[in-house]
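Tokens for 7-keto-8-aminopelargonate synthetase. Go.
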Amino acid sequence: MAKIKHNNFIDTVDEVLSGAKKEGVLHLYAEDKVLTGRTIQIKGKEMFHFGTTGYLGLEQDSRLKEAAIQAIRDYGTQFPLSKSYISHPLYYELESKIEQMYGIPPIITKNSTLGHLAIIPTLIRDEDAVIMDHQVHWSVQNACQLLKLRGIPVEMIRHSNLDMLEDKIKQLTTKCNKIWYMADGVYSMFGDYAPIPELLALTQKYTQLNLYFDDVHGMSWKGKNGTGFIFDAIKELPENCIVVSTLSKTFGASGATVFCKNQKLRDKIKNFGGPLTFSAQLEPASVAAAIASADIHLSPEITILQSALSEKIEYFKSALEKTALPMIALNSSPVFFLATATPLTGYKMVQRLFDEGFYVNLAIYPAVPIKNTGIRITLSRHNQKEEIKALVEAMEFHLPKALEESGNSLNKVKKAFGIDEIMLPTENVEKETVLKLQYETSIEKINKQNWNELLGKQSTFDWNGLCFLENAFANSDCPENNWDFHYYIIKDQSGIPVLATFFTYGLWKDDMLAPESISLQLEEKRKQNPLHLTSKVLGMGSLFTEGNHCYIDKTHPLAKEAITLLLEQVEIVYHKLNADMLVLRDFEEDEQWNRIFHNHGFLKINMPETGIIYNNEWNNIEQFSASLSSRSRKHFLKEVLPFEKAFDIVIRDNLTKEEVEQGYKLYENVKNNNHAINTFTYPIEVFKKMENHSQWEFILLYLKEEISNPLVGIMFCYKNREQTYVPALIGMNYDYAKEFQLYRQLLFQTIKRSRELNRSKIDFGFSATFEKKKLGATIIPKVAYIQARDNFSMELMGTLQNEDKKR
């Protein structure tokens, strides 16, 4: 019934990256006539290059260049044929040299992304299962989506959370043959490592556990023969471990390598591993460059190169440790991460470092959570100590200025990353002299008339409505129905309101706005654990209310400052409550607010559209019908009006105990039948409190033709004090829904009742907007802005996306 328009993940990513592109920090072009590795020219400015993933600088080695040039002369620019038929003349030599490096024959693929697509569907059997670290590289996660189509369990754990991993293993041991844990060796954003000793210990404890590592960022700069971080940590590859490495990045050429001990499995992957069979092979130039690099890796020179890079890494680390810069995972990898928390601070910092002559990478959503934006700095052997020192000095000088420009602070950055437990300041003295904040935890402490003038004209959150909600959702024994309320009114020095809003704190289902197919899967798991995949959310408005929860006087000269003050104050409560997510919801699209919220670390997502009837003013059915479009009029006269005579329609201010119980069962029918907007089921106590509240009334539909005259439909309606009528909840008996057009009839009776009460506006809310539009509702797009401590839930639900297609 409740068809809604869901948010598209690609739209969210596009908006974030487009914003970063406008700021001049992404999608840039190098302008150099000759690249050296040490510097790079962008927009006419030469900068020291601290953004490469060629950590040893081998891409500029003359031996690799000459080998590639000679291969083009000898063999052409490409060898356009699948390797299943024949490999070009240089392939055998490369495979032999890589085998000398590792002591294991390799599988060579075009790149690591195609490698994962070749390996994972071939490796994982239908009786197996996969557990992914939620920060494992996108290419691994993408390849695992193919497994879902075969019904293979694909689970996810929080980053390097070994307790969670062990719990997942225990759940899967009786259901699956092999369990594959997939992780990166060195993670590409923060530069942190997979916990190898602990993972190897788990394989001893659980013999079904196998390990699959993407080690492309650990290659060359670490290990004997430059074989990488994983091989350096495990020394010898066990049977239950597969490693994907690279011939590009630090290796200096192109392509990827796959290693496994099992010869039969290796042959199977090589014989029919999707892209290995059907994609073009590496170009002769790439293979020749890789051979030249392998010669270096097999020589004593590799330890000299590794030592030279290691010395610079230690020099950089030592300099950073003497500062107060908020660095994440400061270890011996060449990947460093400077935390900025908000995108705006990240933009300002990148721009400032560009101006100082240092090229660095912005790390932003979806690579990291939006509030974990930062600067990724990578070191290479090209970097010299003098520019490394200068970079540290520039970072130390410019970060305070970037924080100040963006309304941020070091304290807030540390809090966003959980670096330490510093309490945020409770007020901004400078802004308090301009704007006055009233913060309360009960609506009863706010002037009733003032609140209703600002936010009383819609939905169920006029002053009396909020009294009802506080009473209905306070001190509940069920954690999902126990809410805290937080009210904010911001005024200028003259006492004129600039902004007013309220938030509630409680549990939300993470899939509340996810596609229905995902919610259906999660509800199966919630039969054992009702709070599975739920989050503590501080959200604007409440799950019970819908509409514009935030009054902003956009014409006021301090409107932007009021928004900033609100965000600062809400963030204090957010951290104090240790909430998982902060949500600002039900805004209409506005470019100015988009920019402000994004720069403060919020992601914009599309909410379900809402339906509102304005100017509900007509004197008879003919006039109402005439107010509809010609197409909607035909629908009304054929699918709605004729069925009215099938019902006894009763309006009640009070319900009997039996009617409350019957109405609640009908509400449960709708709730259990509709997962398009997946919220918790409200307890019957909420409905009993409606019955005792003067502004609630009930539209009951009894079916005439049945002997028992059963109650088959009910609308739970709120009479807003400011002339708005709100059909907040609905209940139906689905045995009669289709035959008697029950849902449409309930909508029509709501419109009629609103007119009888002389209410000019109806807040129909979201879901089933197509049906509401046919009865005269205006459909309004809405957006929300969210900030989560990590991307785990979103990425976990991404692993469920294909389940519906499988069905």
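The chain has a mean pLDDT of 91.
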